[in-house]
Amino acid sequence: MKLWGGRFRKGENKLMESFNSSLAIDKRLVYEDITGSLSHIKMLIASEILTELEGNKIIEGLNSILSDIENNDLLIKGDYEDIHSFIETNLIERIGETGKKLHTARSRNDQIAVDIRLYAKKKSTEVIEAVELLQNNLKKKADENAAIMPGYTHLQRAQVVTFKHHLMAYFQMVDRDKKRLENAVALMDESPLGCGALAGTTHNINRDFTAKALGFKKPVNNFLDGVSDRDYLLELMSCFSILMMHLSRLSEELILWSTQEFNFIEIDDAYSTGSSIMPQKRNPDSAELIRGKTGRVYGDLFSLLTTMKGLPLAYNKDMQEDKEPFFDSIDTTLSCLEVMASIIDTLEVNKEVMGKSVKNGFLNATDLADYLVKKGVYFRDAHSIVGSIVIFCEDNEKSIEELSLEELKSFSSVIKEDIYEYLDYQKSMNKGIKKTLLK
Ligand code: ARG
């Protein structure tokens, strides 16, 4: 069952065998592994390294293995070292001696490198699609809710914004995530197949052939780099980490807004859970889990960064440890995107509560300062005048818009009746660049 063993005088220790085996993890690359092998064999035929007869026999064998796996007639398990050994051993059992030619002019080092690049490219597309779904849902919910709400800095009420503009901020964040992912995919779009173990091969193989057949832009430039590069996984995991940070910030706001203290939104029952002891509870577990899982994805990135640190060229077995964190980060990111898209889709927005909240906290103070500036007051003076008005309001338990024109005029003679257009939250929304908040 081993792909090696010729130079060994005694067998592998059982504990070592299971310690070394990665089949339980890398079995997920079965499709990419067979796809890579099929292209490799087609190239070997085209380069006259295998005869057509031999090559086609191998191709048939690989295809039958793949269809048996897809139909559950062949289960990927047993004492195999990895997915590569599993496929090759099964191929030889199935088609006989010719199967032993599969690995001609190839190493598992370039094999795994091409497998994981193919897989990473495919999964990145899935993440990009999941981001697009979230974007659609954000846009839809935003368009339905152009209502005003308090905007915050330091989590203190600051100025009026719209729920739409607030939600669309997240649209922009994940839009950058999408572009980051597209850039990462473009950068990794080179085939390492044909690098061999580290030094190429004395066979006259055609790396352009396999690169093209597997959908890569070109083969990598350097053999040692090709087999030992995992930058693309790190880069994708960095993209996932930033993306998760965005989802986590959104989760935090959803959690906060769904408290009785805020009561701005309601997360749908379908994405909430209850308490085993407190019958009245309705908890925003979906958003909390996304916030929590963000830590997992950061950890995955750091796990591989730490594994790669200090590795000499070229392949080292340490690199087998790339898969668990990468698979985990991609699974986690995908599921979080999916759940977040559904939370947004089913979100109830309490426009009335948000509209009322705007009235407390002097959110029109900056608009009032703008008004004074338009009437010729220096901004720094306007700032100070409005500060005094706020103190007056606090002392008299009033909001600025509740003050009479006389009261307002006592702070500055430039104030006229048109002031109320600036103090009205809805009307001020139509002034200047603020209109953007509604669009
Ligand atoms: N299972 C290995 C990995 O994932 C495949 C490459 C093994 N190469 C070797 N020379 N042992 O990295």
From TrEMBL:
It comes from the Bacteria. Belongs to the lyase 1 family. Argininosuccinate lyase subfamily. The gene is argH. Keywords: Amino-acid biosynthesis, Arginine biosynthesis, Cytoplasm, Lyase. InterPro entries: Arg_succ_lyase_C, Argininosuccinate_lyase, Fumarase/histidase_N, Fumarate_lyase_CS, Fumarate_lyase_fam, Fumarate_lyase_N, L-Aspartase-like. Pathway: Amino-acid biosynthesis; L-arginine biosynthesis; L-arginine from L-ornithine and carbamoyl phosphate: step 3/3. It is found in: Cytoplasm. PANTHER family: ARGININOSUCCINATE LYASE (PTHR43814). It catalyses: 2-(N(omega)-L-arginino)succinate = fumarate + L-arginine. GO terms for molecular function: argininosuccinate lyase activity. Its EC number is 4.3.2.1. It comes from Halobacillus shinanisalinarum. This is Argininosuccinate lyase. Residues 362-430 form the Argininosuccinate lyase C-terminal domain. NCBIfam families: argH (TIGR00838). HAMAP family: Arg_succ_lyase. The keyword Protease does not apply. Residues 6-299 form the Fumarate lyase N-terminal domain. The keyword Amino-acid biosynthesis applies.
